[in-house]
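Module 6 notes. Inverse folding takes a fixed backbone as the condition and produces residue identities as the prediction. Think of it as a translation problem where the source language is geometry and the target language is the twenty amino acids. Below is one complete input and output pair. Work through it position by position during the lab.
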Protein backbone atom coordinates (compact mmCIF):
# COMPACT_ATOMS: atom_id res chain seq x y z
CA UNK A 1 0.00 0.00 0.00
CA UNK A 2 2.92 2.37 0.58
CA UNK A 3 3.63 2.62 -3.17
CA UNK A 4 -0.03 3.37 -3.92
CA UNK A 5 -0.27 5.98 -1.19
CA UNK A 6 3.13 7.62 -1.66
CA UNK A 7 4.04 6.86 -5.28
CA UNK A 8 5.25 10.44 -5.72
CA UNK A 9 8.15 9.84 -3.35
CA UNK A 10 8.80 6.07 -3.14
CA UNK A 11 9.21 3.34 -5.72
CA UNK A 12 10.07 -0.34 -6.11
CA UNK A 13 11.80 0.48 -9.41
CA UNK A 14 15.57 0.59 -8.87
CA UNK A 15 16.09 2.96 -11.83
CA UNK A 16 14.03 5.75 -10.22
CA UNK A 17 16.89 7.50 -8.43
CA UNK A 18 14.81 10.57 -7.55
CA UNK A 19 12.66 8.51 -5.17
CA UNK A 20 13.26 6.36 -2.12
CA UNK A 21 13.48 2.79 -3.45
CA UNK A 22 11.91 -0.01 -1.46
CA UNK A 23 12.51 -3.71 -1.87
CA UNK A 24 9.58 -5.97 -0.99
CA UNK A 25 10.13 -8.24 1.98
CA UNK A 26 7.65 -10.65 3.50
CA UNK A 27 9.46 -11.19 6.77
CA UNK A 28 9.90 -14.09 9.12
CA UNK A 29 7.04 -16.51 9.68
CA UNK A 30 5.74 -16.29 13.25
CA UNK A 31 6.35 -20.00 13.69
CA UNK A 32 10.05 -19.54 12.82
CA UNK A 33 10.68 -16.30 14.70
CA UNK A 34 11.52 -17.82 18.07
CA UNK A 35 13.66 -20.52 16.48
CA UNK A 36 15.69 -17.82 14.74
CA UNK A 37 16.04 -15.30 17.54
CA UNK A 38 15.74 -17.15 20.87
CA UNK A 39 18.95 -17.20 22.83
CA UNK A 40 20.28 -20.62 23.68
CA UNK A 41 20.66 -21.39 27.40
CA UNK A 42 24.04 -20.24 28.77
CA UNK A 43 24.69 -18.14 25.66
CA UNK A 44 24.83 -14.80 27.44
CA UNK A 45 27.95 -12.98 28.57
CA UNK A 46 30.02 -14.62 31.25
CA UNK A 47 32.01 -12.47 33.68
CA UNK A 48 31.11 -9.42 31.59
CA UNK A 49 32.85 -10.80 28.51
CA UNK A 50 31.16 -11.85 25.30
CA UNK A 51 31.47 -15.58 24.59
CA UNK A 52 33.63 -16.31 21.57
CA UNK A 53 32.61 -18.84 18.94
CA UNK A 54 34.40 -20.22 15.93
CA UNK A 55 32.65 -18.98 12.73
CA UNK A 56 33.83 -22.14 10.95
CA UNK A 57 31.71 -24.20 13.34
CA UNK A 58 28.59 -22.02 12.90
CA UNK A 59 25.58 -23.68 11.29
CA UNK A 60 22.20 -22.38 10.14
CA UNK A 61 19.42 -22.83 12.65
CA UNK A 62 17.34 -24.45 9.92
CA UNK A 63 17.79 -25.12 6.23
CA UNK A 64 15.70 -24.10 3.28
CA UNK A 65 16.77 -25.06 -0.20
CA UNK A 66 17.68 -22.08 -2.37
CA UNK A 67 15.82 -23.85 -5.15
CA UNK A 68 12.55 -23.16 -3.31
CA UNK A 69 12.92 -19.38 -3.38
CA UNK A 70 11.76 -18.76 -6.98
CA UNK A 71 8.63 -20.81 -6.36
CA UNK A 72 7.92 -19.01 -3.09
CA UNK A 73 8.55 -15.62 -4.69
CA UNK A 74 6.16 -16.48 -7.52
CA UNK A 75 3.42 -17.18 -4.97
CA UNK A 76 4.04 -13.80 -3.31
CA UNK A 77 3.99 -11.99 -6.68
CA UNK A 78 0.74 -13.72 -7.68
CA UNK A 79 -0.85 -12.65 -4.40
CA UNK A 80 0.31 -9.05 -4.90
CA UNK A 81 -1.13 -9.06 -8.43
CA UNK A 82 -4.47 -10.44 -7.20
CA UNK A 83 -4.63 -7.63 -4.65
CA UNK A 84 -3.73 -5.14 -7.43
CA UNK A 85 -0.70 -3.95 -5.49
CA UNK A 86 1.59 -4.48 -8.49
CA UNK A 87 0.91 -4.36 -12.27
CA UNK A 88 -0.28 -7.51 -14.04
CA UNK A 89 2.76 -7.61 -16.44
CA UNK A 90 4.33 -10.92 -17.44
CA UNK A 91 6.51 -10.88 -14.31
CA UNK A 92 9.34 -12.84 -15.95
CA UNK A 93 12.70 -11.92 -14.48
CA UNK A 94 15.77 -12.02 -16.70
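Target side of the pair, the amino acids:
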Amino acid sequence: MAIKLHGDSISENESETDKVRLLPYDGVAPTKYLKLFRMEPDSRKKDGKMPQSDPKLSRPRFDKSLEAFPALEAIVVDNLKKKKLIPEGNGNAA
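Reference fact for the lab report: The beta strands are 10-11, 20-21.
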